[in-house]
Amino acid sequence: MLVTGAGKRLGREIALTLARAGWRVAVHHRHSRSEAEQTAADCSAAHPQGTPAMVCHADLSVEASVRDLVPAVVAEFGALDAVVNSASVFEHDSADTVDVASFQRHWMANTAAPVLLAQALHQHVVARGSQDSVVVNLLDQKLWNPNPDFFSYTLSKAALETANTLMAQAFSPYLRVVGVAPGLTLTSHMLSDEKFAELHRQSPLGRSSTPEDVAASVAFALSNRSITGTTLLVDGGQHLMRFERDFSHM
Questions:
Q1: Which residue range is the domain that position 184 belongs to?
Q2: CA 41 to CA 53: how far, in whole Å?
Q3: Digit-coded pLDDT (tens) for 219-232
């Protein structure tokens, strides 16, 4: 199991949840090596058999670095059965400020890298002659509740959501492809604790997603052999509401 962006935040929670479920986890990072090493140590401790996790580095903005990632994990683990694409670039731009450089940063990390990793996993499992491998791509409830903030980010995630459908068709029966779309889950430097708590309550269920909710949904997508080519929205129903701005600008 490879989890990208697993050194901290949501990727870390996903990695720990999967380790507790018995997956041997490869913890990917770009800049957060010390955090990734801590996550790997915690995954090893959480694994029912104490199976050691590994740390792997890749710059998801560089194609060659992305293409080296699956072979590196296979060399360490002997085989690979699943990839969770949690790493993401999330930089603000708008329709008035977007430029090609912003498109490229978001496109490569958020769309191209997950597709290349799915491609590599598919080739690996076909060569092994195995089936029921899985790719889970983290998306965003705002695809079903769009607003023009974070313009490049939103387009990159919308392209990945479409890629889910295309890859589920192209890579079956060897590979399932599933999306998980959280709502507001973690705070950031753009929100105070009070504002985050207020926004988190703005959903039909009175709460949005927690890291534990999202990680549990990833685990469900990995284990349920009948799910492919669709997305699980894990957001307390926030996608049913109309938000004129991104949460960070409300």
A1: 2-249
A2: 7
A3: 999 999 999 999 99
CA-CA distance, 234 to 214, in Å (whole number)? 7
CATH, residue 107: 3.40.50.720
Q: What's residue 196's pLDDT? A: 85
Q: Phi then psi for 53, rounded to 5 degrees?
A: -85, 170
pTM: 0.95
How many other CB atoms are there within 10 angstroms of residue 133's CB atom?
23
- How far apart CA 53 and CA 39 sit, in angstroms, is 9
Split into its structural domains, the chain has a count of 1
pLDDT, one tens digit per residue, over 193-223 is 888 899 899 999 999 999 999 999 999 999 9
> Which structure tokens are listed for 231?
């997305």
CA gap 208, 188 in Å, rounded:
15
Query: Measured between alpha carbons, how far is 25 from 22 in angstroms, rounded to an integer?
Result: 9
| Angle of the 113-128 helix axis to the 151-171 helix axis, nearest 10 | 20
Q: For 111-143, what is each residue's pLDDT tens digit?
A: 999 999 999 999 999 999 988 899 999 999 999
